[in-house]
Amino acid sequence: MELLRDIERNFRDDTGPVTIRTPVGRFTIWLLCGDVRWTSWDTLPFRKRPTQFSDASKRIISELRQYFKTGWSDFGWFEIPKFALLLKPEEVVRAFVFLKDNVRPGQLITYNELADIVGAEPPVLRAHIQNNRLPVIIPCHRVIRSDGRMGGYQRGHDDKKYWLLKLEGIRFKGDIW
Prior knowledge:
Elements: H1 2-9, E1 16-22, E2 25-32, E3 35-40, H2 55-70, H3 82-85, H4 90-102, E4 109-110, H5 111-118, H6 122-130, E5 143-144, H7 158-167
Parallel strand pairs: 4-5
Antiparallel strand pairs: 1-2, 2-3
């Protein structure tokens, strides 16, 4: 805990977490130098919050709040930070961009369909989607299995995937679409 406090003391005014409360838990937007670096369903006990924001980070925070209330937002304008794509194969980068720009709220795509579109092997794609550093903005929750089941989400946050899809108007019978 002391290590976190030491790190926190060195934060600039435009660096740190911004948390949005949702019905299924806290969603954290991590800012670095005023810009969005990653988002997460997990939180760390930082007390210091950013006080300065870039225009893009203000907009993304506003749109995420809107999304969690209504199930609708368009993140197509948002440029994925290079950090979120670090060490990702080219076809995975194409998949993330395709999801963000083309798969709208209320729409679903299977791992196999996405793999065919971007020229990837489904197991490779699945592994990287599970480790998406920008959940919701890159809508990996809209990717389902070919048999119509939801599949996993964000290393065990399956309840959040179900809730996000329900918020967007998707109805499942059990875990099958």
